[in-house]
Amino acid sequence: MGRLPLLLLFLLPVLLLPLTSAEIKTLKITSDSRPMILFERFGFTHTGQATIAVSSVSVVSSAGATDPSRLGFFLLSEESLIQVLLELQTNPSFCVLDSKYINLLFTFRDLSPPPASSFNHSYPITAPNEYSLFFANCAPQSTVSMDVRTELYNFDGREKDFLSAGLTQLPTLFFWFSVIYFAFFGFWIYFCVKSIRSVHRIHMLMGVLLIMKALNLLCAAEDKHYVKSTGTPHGWDVLFYIFQFIRVVLLFTVIVLIGTGWSFLKPVLQEREKKVLMIVIPLQVLANIASIVIGETGPFIKDWVTWNQCLPYAQSLRISTSGSNAAEEIANLAFYVVMFYMFRPVDKNGYFVLDEDEEAAELALRDEEFEL
Description:
membrane; Protein CANDIDATE G-PROTEIN COUPLED RECEPTOR 7; CAND6-7_N; alpha+beta; signal; single chain; 9 strands; Jelly Rolls; GOST_TM
């Protein structure tokens, strides 16, 4: 593969990478030969700063001595990305560090002498925008090893805000939606107790689904709160992913069980329906694992693109602003309200009644299973 296709491969994920909460990240790059490494994307305000620290830097080249000015870190806005791609298309041997469209931070020429080979500096953002942080290696036939620590943040008064511009209201947003779902759960329990004769096992699962959704949002609120103020989630991300995993698997399970009429029309699942669950649940497990890898690592790992291919719709589910997050949660809440209203425990629910053709088909299927 030529150098141009490789550079395009590492630049194009910028179009897919959503704005992130710029947790303070410490990572280790080992013998990496990629021409470009995308670390993260962040929305800066006029008070934004980027702090980059590298240490234990080592460059190994099979082509002899390398020019340290051919390796370095830079910021690239989404608007400038197209211009850089055009430069690379015009001249495949062009080094992106020479582009006039990037915001060059430093090159390895600025490193302290060996054995420390380190650099640490903070850069104020003069032009508010959404930027992607890159490392570029234009030295041919070379591999790089280094320890990298990044801090991307905006100042809110004198305090650092590690949430990207547009995401600063997420903690409050998630908290209030969690309160709504807790209230929803309380109302569901009240309604089930009031209609106890019509309650089925599926209604209990639906109640568990509500509490998982509420806990998922509560953990998301705490996660974003600590990231916003300290740059680290303090373990709330673990709880968030646990409840998210349970919620997603439970949601699809409830939908499948409702679709099959389990507990409403028949006490046990048929073999075909069990197979559907055996397919759906493992796929959701894989999707959740991919989501965790994408969310907790980043494009700087070598297999990040592979995980995105395992979860092609992941990026469409990751929202860039507080406003779009609010819209998504409102849509989710509307879905839950409609679903729970349609399948609420009542004496005569039209959604649980089989018409004559369906009833005949159901009886025929039962007779066939009995004969087998």
